[in-house]
Amino acid sequence: MSTVTTPKFSCKPDFDECLARIEAWYEQKLLDRPPVRFSHHNIEYERHRTVQGPWKTPKDRWLDVEFQVSAFIESLKGTTFLAETFPVFWPNLSAVVYNLFLGQEARFDDVTVWVTPCVEDLEKPPELRVQWDNIYFRTVEAMTRRALELAEGRFLVGYTDMYAGVDCTLGLRGMEQMCLDVLFQPDALRRLINMAWQEYPAVYQHFDQMLKSHGQLSITWMNLPSRETFNVLACDFATNISREHFDAVCMPILRREASLFTHNVFHVDGRGVARHIDSILTLPNLVGVQWVQGYGAAQPILQWIPLIEKIQQAGKSVIVDLQPEELEPFMRRVDPRGIMLWIPAEPKDQPEILQKLKRW
Question: How many C-beta atoms lie closer than 10 Å to residue 65's C-beta?
C-alpha cells in the first residue's frame, strides 16, 4: 500500500469517507452504499466553451495557464461536492495531448482539439520522440505547477489525458488509412504503435513526481482518486475492427500499459468497443470498466444489464451513467457490489438519491 497522505479539503469534509467507498469499489466490495458521482460523462468538455477574453484564437485560450486554473477555481465557488464528486483540476489540452507532445500539428476549436495525420509511410516513419520543450508539454507542466501552488486544502490536481498507444497512432495515421494498415500492414502498424508509446512511462513518471511531491493522490478526468498508481485505458479505434484484429494489434500495447499501474479502469466507449469485452477483461491490473453507452437508442441503461453483469461476474467493477428516473428500476435488477453510478442530478435532488442508495 502506498504511503501517500490523504489530502484534506475545506469544501469536502467527508473526503476520507468517500475515498473509502472508492477503495472498496476498486476491490468489488461495498461499504454502506455504492459510490456515486453527481455528473455525467464528458461534462468536462461542456465547460468553458466560448468565453469573452483577450484571446485572438481558441488556441490562445486553451494555452492560457492562468485562465484555465483561475476559471476552475471560480467554478468551485458555491459548489457543494456531495458523495463521490470530488473537486479535481486536471490540466486539459484534450484527448490528443500526447500527439501534441510528439509535435503533431493541431487545430483548436472552442470545445476540443483536432490533429492532422502526419505519418504517410509506415516503412519510413518519422522519428517519434516526445518534445519535452514544446509549447504543449510546457503548458501542461505550467498548468500542473500553478494548480499545485493553489490546491492545498481546496482541490485535487490530476494528470493530463494521455493516450499514447493505439489511439495516439490513430491520430498519426488517420482512420481510413489505419483500418487498411490493420488488414495489409499489421506488423508495420504494431511497430509504429510501439514507437509512439515508447516514452509514455517517462512522461507519466514526470507528472507523477510533480503531483506526489505535493502530497497529491493519483487522479484523472475520471474523478477516481487512488493512493496507488492509476490509469485510464482506452482504445476507441477498436470500434472499427474485428475481435481477431483487436487481439493481434491492440491488446499487446494495452497489456504493456496496464502492467505499469496498480489501478486500471478501461473506458469502453460504446457497443463497438464493447464487443471486445472478453479480451479487455483479461488485461493485467484491471479493476474496473467505465461503460459509456452513448446517446439515442443506446442510452436507456436497462438494455445493457447483461453486459454490466458480465463485467461483474468477471470480478471487475463498473462505472455506469444513468438518468435519475432510471435509478430505481436499475437498483431492482443489479447487484450493487462493484457498481459506481454517474448521475446528472440537480443539487436539490442529490440527498434523496443518496438515501435511496443506502437502501440498495
Answer: 18
Res 187: pLDDT: 97
CA pair distance 169, 304, nearest whole angstrom: 30
Angstrom CA distances, 298 to 62, 268, 308, 322, stand at: 32, 14, 14, 12
Distance CA 291, CA 69 (A): 29
CA distance linking residue 75 with residue 78, whole number of Å: 8
Maximum separation of any 2 CA atoms in the chain, in Å: 60
Collapsing DSSP to helix, strand or coil, 38 comes out as coil
**Helices 65-76 and 135-151, axial angle in degrees (round to 10):** 40
CATH says 15-358 is which class? Answer: alpha beta
Q: What is the mean pLDDT of residues 294-318?
A: 93
- What does the chain come to in residues? 360
For range 229-239, the mean pLDDT: 98
Residue 333: partners with Cβ closer than 8 Å, 6 or more residues away: 302, 305
Beta bridge partners of 108: 113
Higher pLDDT, residue 135 or 13: 135
Grid cell at residue 207? 507528472
**Termini Cα distance of the chain:** 30
Per domain, the residue ranges of the chain are 15-358
Residues 240-290 pLDDT 10s: 999 999 999 999 999 999 999 999 999 999 999 999 999 999 999 999 999
Q: Where are the alpha helices (DSSP H) in 213-349?
A: 243-245, 251-258, 271-274, 277-280, 305-313, 327-333
Gap between the Cα atoms of 162 and 95, Å rounded? 7
Average pLDDT over residues 155-161: 96
SS3 assignment, position 338: coil
